[in-house]
Amino acid sequence: MALRSVLAIVAIEAVVLGTNGLARAQAPAYRIFQPDGAGPHPAVVFASGCSGFTPSIAPTAYERAAERLRGQGYVVLFADYLGKRGLKNCASSRISRSEAGKDVVAAATWLKSQPFVDPARISALGWSYGGGAILAALAEHSQDQLSFSRAAVYYPPCDWLRPWKNATPVLMLLAGADDVAPGEACEEVAKSSGTPNAVKVVLYSGAQHAFDVSELPAKMADRFGTIGHDPKAAAAAQQEIERFLKAGELGGR
């Protein structure tokens, strides 16, 4: 199925495909989903899990999430911290969460300079390793350096993460039965952050890692542990994400 999106397919030139035809703009090699209209639009930077933006078990999952938000008026950008390094996954240990987090910050900074994006309404959304990367960025950058003003993360690995001191609103969506990235470490780092009241933790009891991926069965073994789809948790988490992003547009937490 054709996607209405902005595809940065070479390092210098992005081809923008929308209802008004083709337009060209200077851009890094980002894949962007852009809503209709000139904007400026709110934007969300996606950071994928360890298997990248086209995981073999669910190759279109991130596209579906991007299209959903694009339909709600958001620009969505894929910060492909794996692809830019020629990596298939994060398991090789050739990229750290800190490095991936810097890529998210760079993507948000690029978005901030684009005329079709509202620079005050840029959020970051990460899954698993990508979520850990976003939390690492919070710890390593000041609020002004981040370029995104809000962050939401699905079941991130929080081991060895340092607490952050800035007051960026953060939404953590954790799986209660997660043996890949147990949520206890995330709850501890959230409590130790500079502004604990800015962090909302939602724990889905009984849910497995990757609970929002509809292609998965309810439970299956993965090389990192147990993963599985939980429709109720997935729907509830989607509502949390949409409320969180909308609160950013209204200037709330």
What does this structure look like?
The structure is a single chain. The relative contact order is 0.12. Strand 2 and strand 3 form a beta hairpin. This protein has six helices and twelve strands. The strands form two sheets. It has a ten-stranded mixed beta sheet, with helices on both faces. The protein has a two-stranded antiparallel sheet with strand order 11-12. It has 253 residues and is α/β, with parallel strands linked by helices.
Element string (H = helix, E = strand)? EEEEEHEHEHHEEHEEEH
Overall 3D geometry? globular
Q: Sketch the major β-sheet.
A: 10 strands, mixed
How large is the count of helical segments? 6
The N- to C-terminal Cα distance equals: 36 Å
Strand content: 15-25%
Mean pLDDT: 87
Oligomer: single chain
Give the spatial strand order of the biggest sheet. 3-2-1-4-6-5-7-8-9-10
